[in-house]
TrEMBL record:
Keywords: Oxidoreductase. Gene3D superfamilies: NADP-dependent oxidoreductase domain. GO terms for molecular function: oxidoreductase activity. InterPro entries: AKR_Detox_Biosynth, NAD(P)_OxRdtase_dom_sf, NADP_OxRdtase_dom. This is NADP-dependent oxidoreductase domain-containing protein.
Length: 321
């Protein structure tokens, strides 16, 4: 494992993560999403990231219905990554489907198709989900357990108490939040603090050069609480890695269903053109420039980067050999 990469504290906690976190949503089964890579490629990517100095790996129970966690766990075991050096982040909230192509994330029909009590942030689901994640990861504990979404149906008191209890039980070291509104984060964090429970140390939010809504409410909230941001989609699902007129580029760029969130926004073209211009001027790739911009923003601890190309991964982490 290289020591050239910088390690920083996650928020005001004592936990240190590499300035780039490897996103493992990319690894699992193409039956779940067409652009997802299989086991062998996934393990190779994880090894390349670790060798370059990345010590933090982000996954979720729902990614490829658990297979992403399995692949990460197998990579850790195969290459004997020292457990006291690496940081494993996973998530709880969504349904882990029994079929490889099932994707019920946020689907209100989950109860009616056999998944009652297997989603959300209830005490039962948090404990059950942690147990299953540990088994898939082949680990004794999770470094950072993140709530994948806000649960409108479960009382905040129940959720925050359960999160505190999985920490006290030794299954989890720290907790974090992901993809919610600032008022929701504020309410959850305040409840934990006021009731002497375990508070969040991180927020995994959607943030990049073409989506900056988080600057309005979320970033000031995180600063007030001393919580670190670890943004997902820092490259706008590939939009910030190539000229505006150039479509596709990778299998993910051609098939990712969530690309629609960036469609029809008039300012995108001007922003992407400016990124292209500055990247050429500075002798960087567009992806490198976009990541450098993000790392310059106050409150951002480390972006979560995922790619379907090992060459692109090495370029981003500065290990082009």
């Amino acid at each position: 494992m290289s020591s050239s990469i910088e390690y920083v504290r996650l928020g005001q906690s004592g936990l240190k993560v590499s300035k780039i976190i490897l996103g493992c949503m990319t690894y699992g089964s193409p039956e779940w999403q067409k652009w997802v890579l299989g086991k062998d490629e996934g393990i190779a990517h994880i090894k390349a990231a670790y060798d370059a100095g990345i010590n933090a790996f982000d996954t979720a129970n729902v990614y490829s219905n658990g297979l992403s966690e399995i692949i990460l766990g197998e990579a850790i075991k195969k290459y004997e990554f020292p457990r006291d050096k690496i940081v494993v982040l996973t998530k709880v909230y969504g349904v882990v489907g029994k079929e490889p192509d099932l994707n019920l994330f946020g689907d209100p029909k989950s109860d009616t198709v056999g998944y009652v009590n297997q989603h959300g942030l209830s005490r039962k689901h948090i404990f059950d989900s942690v147990k299953h994640s540990l088994k898939r990861l082949q680990l004794d504990y999770i470094d950072v357990l993140q709530c994948h979404r806000f649960d409108y149906d479960t009382p905040i008191a129940e959720t925050m108490t359960a999160l505190h209890d999985v920490v006290q039980a030794g299954y989890v070291r720290y907790i974090g939040m992901s993809s919610c509104h600032a008022y929701q984060f504020h309410a959850m964090q305040n409840y934990a603090i006021q009731n002497h429970l375990t508070p969040f140390i991180s927020m995994q939010n959607h943030y990049n050069l073409i989506y900056r809504e988080e600057e309005r409410e979320m970033f000031p909230t995180l600063k007030m609480f001393g919580v670190g941001a670890i943004p997902w989609s820092p490259l706008g699902r590939g939009k910030l890695t190539r000229p505006f007129a150039k479509e596709g580029g990778t299998k993910r760029g051609e098939t990712d269903k969530l690309l629609v969130r960036y469609s029809g926004i008039q300012s995108n073209e001007a922003i992407i053109n400016r990124v292209e211009e500055l990247a050429k001027k500075k002798g960087l790739s567009m992806a490198q420039l976009s990541i450098a911009w993000m790392l310059s923003k106050e409150g951002v601890t480390a972006p979560i980067v995922g790619t379907t190309s090992i060459e692109n991964l090495k370029e981003l982490i500065g290990d082009e050999g």
